[in-house]
Automatic annotation (TrEMBL):
<protein>
    <recommendedName>
        <fullName>PorT family protein</fullName>
    </recommendedName>
</protein>
<keyword id="KW-0732">Signal</keyword>
<feature type="signal peptide">
    <location>
        <begin position="1"/>
        <end position="17"/>
    </location>
</feature>
Amino acid sequence: MSWFTGLLAAVSLPLSAAVPADSALVNTLQPKVRFVFNFDTRYTLLDNDRARISGLKTGLEWKNKYRAGLGYYFLSSPLVTQLPVAADQAPVEARVKFAYVAGYGEYVFLKTERWEASVPLQIGVGKTLNQYHNQQGQVVNTERVPLLLFEPSVSGHYKIYNWVGVGAGAGYRHMLNQARQETSHLNAPIYYVKAKLFVGELYRQVKRKHCRKAV
């Protein structure tokens, strides 16, 4: 997992220490169908503590208004909870971990030269567990608990230039298997503010300038 976290850090363009980054790579497959790849980071609240969820997603866009694909997300910030391990022992500090794979669909209801607004929906499956040290100092993982979640949200961005912009969004993560005590606390709002780098457009601009110089 460390290599993946390092990759996200290497490509991020933070607006501030509290602002996640996002970069989009779009390659044309057909005149009206495009391949889309995004590094996707959002914040959420878990047990009233702010947590960062990092991930990436890839898919297709067609007719400039529909997108669909797959994504992978994991809890990337340290989140500690008090875990009861035995009736005759005090609760121990445990680190919460979870990850999930999601299928997503997105409808773009506003698209101009500068502005875009859309409604993304995600349905994901994954697992969560707690990790702690026992009295002997050994690392112990609790039983993996399955996750089934649904995330509706609203997202938008503004292009400052053709190849760079800023975006924001908000939504809610709802656990469909919330009857399990281990997953009910994962019901929480999600939000994000991002710098967006449109690598495909930047590449086209650099290529056009190079061609002009060559002529």
